Each structure stands twice: as structure tokens, then as C-alpha cells.
Automatic annotation (TrEMBL):
Protein name: Uncharacterized protein
Protein species of origin: Dreissena polymorpha
Length: 121
């Protein structure tokens, strides 16, 4: 059987990456505003894992849209992804995706997502 290939536009990959970068910058700006609200001026990559985990949990539970309404459930997952990308980009050894220290973050996210889905039904 002969392999099949499809035509692709590699420019779309670059555009997708730009959108990801914009999302990461936007989410990190929001998280940094939260840190300032908490009177914490440290860079995210300099916060120890246990403290960062607690801060992210508190952020996920309290963050809302500009108009005060709740975010979409998938937005919370996106914020975690943005934070993880930021840490990787800034040469942190922490990984929200893989480190056991961040298990609480995933529990909080899933719990809040579930609660948000119930209110949308």
C-alpha cells in the first residue's frame, strides 16, 4: 500500500504558536496581578513548589472574568498550561504537569470545573 500525504501550510503552525504565546502572556499577566494582590512580588519561577501550588489553587478558585462572571471550565485548564509553559520558558525545574507537588492544583481545577459545569446546566 502506498503512503498518502496531504498538503499542509506550515505558516499555520507559526500562527498557532503566536496565539499560544499571546495566551501565555495574557494568563501570566493575570496571575502576576493576583500575586500583587496577595502582596507577593516574586517571579513565578522563584516561588517554591509547595507555595506555588497553594497560590495557583487560590487563584483558580478566585479568578473571574473582567465583568465578574465565572470563566469557562476549559479556561482554567488553559491557565495551568500557560503557567507550565512560562515555567519551562524561564528554565524552571518545576512542572505543573508532572510534579507530585502540584497534584492539589489538578484536584482544585477538576472540582471547580465540575462546579462550573453544574451551574451551566
Amino acid at each position: 500500500m502506498k503512503r498518502q500525504f496531504r498538503d499542509v501550510n506550515i505558516d499555520n503552525i507559526e500562527k498557532e504558536n503566536m496565539n499560544t504565546k499571546k495566551k501565555t502572556v495574557s494568563d501570566m499577566k493575570l496571575f502576576n496581578q493576583f500575586l500583587l494582590y496577595k502582596q507577593d512580588s516574586r517571579n513565578v519561577e522563584n516561588i517554591p513548589a509547595h507555595e506555588l501550588s497553594n497560590l495557583i489553587c487560590e487563584f483558580l478558585l478566585g479568578v473571574t472574568k473582567k465583568d465578574g462572571s465565572e470563566n469557562e471550565p476549559t479556561t482554567l485548564r488553559g491557565i495551568i498550561g500557560s503557567t507550565d509553559r512560562y515555567l519551562i520558558h524561564n528554565n524552571s525545574k518545576l512542572s505543573l504537569m508532572n510534579d507530585k507537588e502540584f497534584a492539589k492544583v489538578w484536584e482544585v481545577m477538576k472540582s471547580k470545573q465540575k462546579a462550573l459545569k453544574k451551574t451551566r446546566l
